[in-house]
Amino acid sequence: MPDAAPALPARLAVIIPVFNEAANVAPLVARLEATLAGIPWEAVFVDDDSPDGTAAEIRRIAARDPRIRCLRRVGRRGLASACIEGFLSVAAPFVAVMDGDLQHDEAILPAMLAAVQDGADIAIGSRHVEGGSAASGFSAARFALSDAGARLARAMLPTPVADPMSGFFLLKRDMVEALAPRLTGRGFKILLDILLTAGRPLRVAEIPYGFRAREHGASKLDATVLLEFGGLLLDKASGGAVPLRFVAFAAVGGLGVVVHMLALGLLGGLLGLGFGAAQWGATFAAMTANFWLNNRITYRDARLSGAALWRGLVLFYLVCGIGAAANVGIATLLVEDGVLAWGLAGAAGALLTVVWNYAVSSTLVWRAR
Ligand code: GDD
Ligand code: MN
Hints:
Radius of gyration: 24 Å
Largest sheet: 7 strands, mixed
Bound molecules: guanosine-5'-diphosphate-alpha-D-mannose, manganese (II) ion
Helix content: 40-55%
CATH topology of the largest domain: Spore Coat Polysaccharide Biosynthesis Protein SpsA, Chain A
Number of helices: 12
Number of domains: 2
Structural class: alpha/beta
CATH architecture of the largest domain: Alpha-Beta Complex
Distance between the termini: 40 Å
């Protein structure tokens, strides 16, 4: 362990997003220390309040080593936004992002720094240039997925990049500071976000490395992360005209209508309930599905869990109950007066509920930032 404060302010700040990586923190710090000898550096771990005690582990090391810091965020989740907040918390002229699970090879950091000092806009740790590899760190399915995503991303990029899906890169702090207000900050692909937001061809240096297998902990990549990837591309392709949260809203709303119609058919057709009762049941089913999906997807970054989840659900039911009553009332009237058939009246009522759900969701239930 080092015994004194560094003689020089950091030249390189390594930003390390972490979620449930307690066992990887100490080994990673030791590796950085070995590989960055001779470069004044610091490391900022950005932890989203991991339940496994990651933050305590970082602070245990930080208490003895002033180069190590812990930025703990509460009530938030997200790899990309963690990286952005890490960037904005440092003063070093060069910043890097690196995973906190030892899958990225820290040994290439000096070469990445040299590349940017020599004029590159960004240095990317790349699995897909001569000398790089990903085989050991990925399952076959994950590799195929990553490959498909990379093809899509490459098609949108103004600069050819072999590994646009990399989560390991280094650039000047000035550049991220300038781009920060326009980054979407959603999902996993912070590099892609930066490359697409820069809006001009960048001088890219790709440095090969072998993506290592994970030894401790588990990957956080899941189906929602993939959805967010699609959202990021859509957002950037539309020039930001379609905000990501709205896309998620619309998708969840669409699914809610499907749930509603299925439930209506089931309750009315199969169970033989009257229209009012069936529409109530269908509304309830759609409301529950919307709450669950919005919590998983639309408000992933402010996701409710534990007691807050139940409080949110009850609140959601309560406020939506007003909308639902109006919904059933109007739909029933439409049917009874013979204005619309069951299907159309049900859909009209459902639509009303979905719009109401949107408004309530973003303001009262999740309080999205
Ligand atoms: N703060 C924070 N918040 N950190 C997170 C979150 C989050 O919500 N989700 C993941 N992380 C951290 C993990 O703890 C890990 O240090 C790092 O981000 C990468 O997450 P993994 O879950 O290990 O992702 P992966 O190995 O499947 O994919 C990674 O490597 C690929 C290859 O470089 C990602 O970085 C991909 O973006 C990258 O393409
Ligand atoms: Mn990983």
